[in-house]
Amino acid sequence: MAVLQTIRDSVNTLRRSVEYASVLANQESLKEAVPYSTMADDQTIRTKDGMFLTVIKINGFCHQTADQGQIDQMAAIRNTLLKALNDSRFAVYSHIIRRRIEPHSGGTISQGFAQILEERYMASLRDKRMYVNDLYLTVIRRKFQGKVGVASSLFERLSGGGRASQAADRQACEELRRRVANIVKALAPYGADVLKCVLRDGTVYSETLEFLAQLLNGAKPVPMVLPRMPLDTALSSRRVSFGQRAFEIRGAVAADTRYGAVLSIREYPNYTTAGFLDGLLKVPGEFIVSQSFSIMDRTPALEEIGRVGRLIEKSDDRGTTVEDAIRFARDEISSQRSVLGEHHMTVTPLADTVKEMEACVEGVVQEIQRTGMIVVREDFNLQPAFWSQLPCNFRDIARRAMISSTNFCHMASFHNFASGRASGNHWGPAVTLLQSTSLTPYYFNFHRDKVGSFTINGMTGSGKTALMSFLIAQSLRIRPTPKCAFFDKDQGAEIFIRALGGRYEVLSPGVPSGFNPLQLAGTADDVSFLRNLLRFCVRPRGRATDLTAEQDRIIDDAVEQIFRVPLEERRFEEVRHLLRGGERASEDDLASRFEIWCTERGWLFNNPKDHWSDANGIIGFDMTKVLDDPDIRTAALGYIFHRIEGMLDGDPMMLFIDEGWKLLNDDKFSGFVNDKLKTIRKLNGIVGIGTQSARDFAKARDAHTILEQTPTNIFFPDLKADEESYLEFFRLSREEFRWIRETPKENRQFLIKHGLDSVVATLDLSSMPDMIKVLSGDINTVDECTDLRARLGDAPEAWLPEFCGWSGSTFGRPA
Questions:
Q1: Contact 585/591 with Cβ under 8 angstroms?
Q2: Looking at the structure, do residues 59 and 126 belong to the same domain, yes or no?
Q3: Mapping DSSP to helix (H, G, I), strand (E, B) and coil, where does residue 413 land?
């Protein structure tokens, strides 16, 4: 037995030795495959064979709703940049790293219903797949290629060897830095930044190495401290095992293991267009798209075109589109409209399981085949195809083709989807996280710079009210917690306002409103407001004349006296007595004109107690039933606006107006909104206005003020959209207008225009009918809520569970 145990131990030791040797061999092959040597400076890497590279991170151009003319123009600009590189000393790599992310939102929401909504909503996003597209452009400076390169190397050796080589390296680095600076400047509309060394928590990290590590790590982000060891050693931290048609990247723990395959282009299409490969940006999976373009010197390029042309003349392709393409390429190069270069492209689908990886392969293949390309899955060439993803690994490129810089710019479009900003906004964290139609995240914010006012356009049933309510609930993560005043129509937001613990007033003729402006505190602003309110109530009817100077004095005296009366005794009836004692009685004296505000219209202000309460910070008003009475509407708005002015104390404040088209044409309301749109940002406030159609804004009295002061505009689909309102007033692109008019409203999608961002997002709450029931009410749900509150009490925790059908200990939260 002892002998057998000794044999087993020896075998196990031998097996471990073989496995360890295999790991060491793998690490050695990794080091050999990684071409990088040292950092030449904080943004430049030197390769083992003397090339230099710098990486540019690009946010991308929001192409989804851009007009084709603009897309073509942007492609032409990129082509000009490539032409400026000019010779074979330069090459570029383009990368798209599409990776899955775990959705997260910043800040904390503590209010009951809003907290439940946040938990349910974020859980629903986590159940879905969400991705980001990271775009990179690597610029490479190397020695001349071909015959020119041989002559250049010979001249360098004859000119002094080592010292000449060092001088040439310094010159190459300086030139690369200049060229990169020019490229970054030209790509400013895309959002371009050079990757470099950065200081984080007292430690120096290399953003460039972090990008390269992602290529070797299956798209997973890896923090890379600036190493002291050679770069090939620092980057070779994972084991890559290659099979016949797939590979495995093994990490320190099983959860870090990734599987992938490599797809290459076997045949190219007859032509390309700008945004040629944009469909890949929507594939539901993780992958890396790598493209290289090695610029050829003009003379060798023309010689190669001539050689191919002569072969075609002797072949069956003579007189076909192939010959036309060669003729066109010769003309492009001769006229310097393009430069020629060697191109290669691979797509590397990645996943945590083989099954998911194969599904991603299928999705990528289908998308590439739609372009007319013929794609092949690498087997014998799998290993070199994988290494060819690394910039400067030209020796590992197995499948390459000559294309023009125009073709390359069509294929490497640097198009992307807007992502917004997750933190560091005017109010701190993003208001909410939305999912775009490309499965990418969009961090929504009200503010662009310091201006946060916005508009929402949506037909009845589009989801406009639900979105407005949702944004209010999500904004409660801001600190200090924002206050909110909501002008509602048809009580659509009543249930939501009450669910937040806010106060909601329905202004209905004959029903006491609970307003009594005479019971204000009596500040200078209160006195001024009350004087103006009384002047409005007793203004002459049917005549162009204003109040007389004597009548103005009587009103001023009445206001002064009313504030001497104990607060609980201040009634509009008391004002009538004060007015009557100030002038001779007649059918048209001030007291007679004021009579109606104590009787027929007494329900509005002639109340024993002022029940205004904004202690919770959230208050809503429904003015649907008084919109057609201009006197009541203007007087009520005057009081409400004065109260809202008192809420503007420098803490975040939101003024939301749903179905605001009729209110926008009221003198009082229009004047207030016009003023607040211009000044509310100084008091840390925003205004959000919703209407059924962009036409309502375009025809509003202060249309241009609204447009100038609302940098964020949200549009739901509108089958009746007109060009004048959308194209001329809101200045949308033709593609944006087409989307608005052709997209079914049932899709629950909407277009967000936020500065340069243009993104189609969705708010999918279909799995949460109880939440929708609260966010947007109708006559039936409002009646149900009213009955429950009458029976159970006004506190949300009393009536909300039964209203939403919640049961058990979860209280509406995800189980």
A1: yes
A2: yes
A3: coil
d(CA 368, CA 642): 61
Q: Do 282 and 167 share a structural domain?
A: yes
Residue type at position 554: I
Model pTM score? 0.86
| 625 lies in some domain | no
57 and 10 in a common domain: no
**Residues 105-123, mean pLDDT to the nearest whole number:** 92
Residue pair 407/341 in contact by the 8 Å Cβ criterion: no
Report how far apart, in Å, the C-alpha atoms of 813 and of each of 55, 305, 767 are.
45, 67, 13
Three-state DSSP class for 78? helix
Q: Alpha carbon of 403 to those of 77, 186, 400, 653, 727: distances in Å?
A: 18, 23, 9, 56, 38
CA dist 506 → 332, 493, 621 (Å) = 70, 11, 6
Is the predicted pLDDT of residue 508 greater than 50, yes or no? yes
Domain that holds residue 356: 34-296+339-416
- What are the tens digits of pLDDT across the range 75-106? 999 999 999 998 889 999 999 999 999 988 88
- In this structure, are 130 and 21 located in the same domain? no
Give domain status of residue 313, yes or no: no
Report H helices in 690-778.
Answer: 694-698, 703-708, 723, 734-742, 769-775
How does pLDDT run across 151-187, given as a tens digit for each residue? 555 555 555 555 556 788 888 899 999 999 999 999 9
465 vs 689: CA distance, rounded Å: 11
DSSP 764: -
Tokens standing for residue 121: 């909503």
- Is the domain of 60 the same as that of 18? no
> In 3D, which of 759, 75, 31 has the Cα closest to residue 408?
75
- Output the average pLDDT for the chain: 87
Total tally of structural domains belonging to the chain: 3
The closest alpha carbon to 386, from 34, 140, 26, 23, belongs to: 34
Last residue of a domain, one of 564, 583, 609: 609
